[in-house]
Amino acid sequence: MNPRSWTTQADSRRRRLKRAGEICRGKVVPADAVTALLEAILEPGDRVCLEGDNQKQADFLARCLSRVNPERVHDLHMVQSVIALPEHIELFERGIARQVDFSFSGPVGTRMAQLVAEGKIQIGAIHTYLELFGRYFIDLTPQVALIVAHSADREGNLYTGPNTEDTPTIVEATAFKSGIVIAQVNQIVDKLPRVDIPADWIDYIVEAPTPHFIEPLFTRDPAQIGEIKILMAMMAIKGIYAEYGINRLNHGVGFDAAAIELLLPTYAESLGLKGKICRHWMLNPHPTLIPAIEAGFVQSVYSPGSELGMEAYVSARPDVFFTGSDGSQRTNRGLSHVAGHYACDLFIGSTLQMDLDGNSSTVTLDRITGFGGAPNLGSDARGRRHGQPAWLKAGRQAQERPAAMPRGRKLVVQMVETFREQMQPTFVERLDAWEVMEKTGMDLPPVMVYGDDVSHIVTEEGIANLLLCRTLEERNEAIRGVAGYTPVGQKRSRGMVENLRDRGIIQRPEDLGIDKRLATRDLLAARSIKELVHWSGGLYQPPQRFRNW
């Protein structure tokens, strides 16, 4: 029997680097040589991580990869957090890539659905970020990683700046399993503000012709927040935040959550809740959180990423944000999502569809957007052991048998209007995810948040507290009871809904003592981006597209 080789991966790496040596010598690669470098390094069927985070994108490397000759490089298996750029799609259209495992594809979700229908893309699974990061170290380890950083020194040390995000996770998984790491940077300098990734983990660096693309994904203009969202925010604050004393929390991205943030210095303060709720956050630095920070509601914010325009404000508030000696955040998506999963008592987010069991998904027949961090942040942490008042109270409400082992429960709130764009009902009898599963061959319907993790649903009609439901029938009727005039809502039993209301399982605004007439834009602490700038003392510098003055 021939002796087994224990160095096949290292041998593969040496062969690839030898081929690359014919393209460039040294660690610094000219920008016009990158496509040739990729053709030398990559082999058909390789697993490739192309860094695309929530915000920053390795856009130059994506463009170079999309230009390789598909006769030489084809059938790649892409593993990446976010599919967002036209070049990401082009990889599949040209046959350079065949399969993908990812987390989020919001901007190109419609095209993703079309490619799946055309058979040009195979989806392994739609992951949560932590799940995908975990698989990088188990069974989806990249052979080649194409990453992005703010700057590098000539040895190859990297400075990732405030948007570190996924970079450390990707590089560690690749570099320590004989993979090859190529980094695009905005500039090569003599001395970095700090070293985020050491040089010996990086094989090649290239100074991109233009700074990397970054999306202000978490900026919501208060001017677009209407009275329905303000009413829902009032219900969430009074019916959930105050009721449970929520102090450790995460907000999903969207105008619903932004409305809550903007009502803290006004409505919540009028209820005497300052110092009693919303003190510790796991959150990107939302500009709409500025008034709550300045008003003294917020004590700390740990972020998975930064936000364009918030850099100077964050740097000037080191008591609130986690910043380094250079004044910028060193965000880490992996660690922040661990914090959001285990250390937060509430997640509040939104969705496109929800069924009668409370299962929700942002994957529909015409749009495959993925989930991002919602499944981890919006799920009960079964491994959690430390107690907090909100977590313990929710656990007591969910406990069906008095003699059962006591344990806490995370509050997972879905906040949705009963109809979304183009009058599509949010509440449905059957999620589109079932049909997507059948068409794509997935093992499971792509559900974002499972119904048994959801504790509350907030709509313009009221709050449904699913923790207090004791039967499936009660749960279904509680959901119908806040589903408005959707077909699901119209099938409600009036008598049973009134019974649930009497027991506090369904609460209308009037049950909470909320005067609907007060739900006006006058209640927002800031009604425009310009007023957010004013709240920040001029430190917040919004991107040009958000400026209308």
List the helices and strands and how they pair.
Elements (H helix, E strand, L loop, with lengths): L7 H13 L13 H8 L5 E4 L8 H8 L9 E7 L3 H8 L3 E8 L4 H10 L3 E5 L2 H8 L7 E10 L4 E2 L7 H9 L4 E10 L14 E4 L19 H18 L3 E4 L3 H16 L9 E3 L7 H5 L5 E3 L8 H5 L17 H10 L3 E4 L3 E2 L5 E2 L1 E2 L2 E2 L5 H4 L11 H10 L12 E5 L16 H9 L15 E4 L2 E4 L6 H9 L6 H4 L3 H9 L3 E2 L21 H7 L14
Parallel strand pairs: 1-2, 1-5, 2-3, 3-4, 5-7, 7-8, 9-10, 9-12, 10-11, 12-17, 17-18
Antiparallel strand pairs: 5-6, 13-14, 15-16, 18-19, 19-20
Helix pairs in contact: 1-2, 3-4, 8-9
Short description:
With 549 residues, the chain is an alpha/beta fold.
Structural commentary:
This protein is of the alpha/beta class and 549 residues long. The chain has three domains: 16-214, 3-Layer(aba) Sandwich (Glutaconate Coenzyme A-transferase), CATH 3.40.1080; 217-344 and 519-542; 346-516, Glutaconate Coenzyme A-transferase, CATH 3.40.1080. The chain is 31% helix and 16% strand. It has helices at 8-20, 34-41, 59-66, 86-93, 109-118, 129-136, 167-175, 227-244, 255-270, 290-294, 311-315, 333-342, 374-377, 389-398, 432-440, 472-480, 487-490, 494-502, 529-535, and strands at residues 47-50, 76-82, 97-104, 122-126, 144-153, 158-159, 180-189, 204-207, 248-251, 280-282, 300-302, 346-349, 353-354, 360-361, 363-364, 367-368, 411-415, 456-459, 462-465, 506-507. Strands 1, 2, 3, 4, 5, 6, 7 and 8 form an eight-stranded mixed β-sheet that branches. Helix 1 (8-20) packs antiparallel against helix 2 (34-41) and helix 3 (59-66) runs parallel beside helix 4. The longest helix has 18 residues, at 227-244.
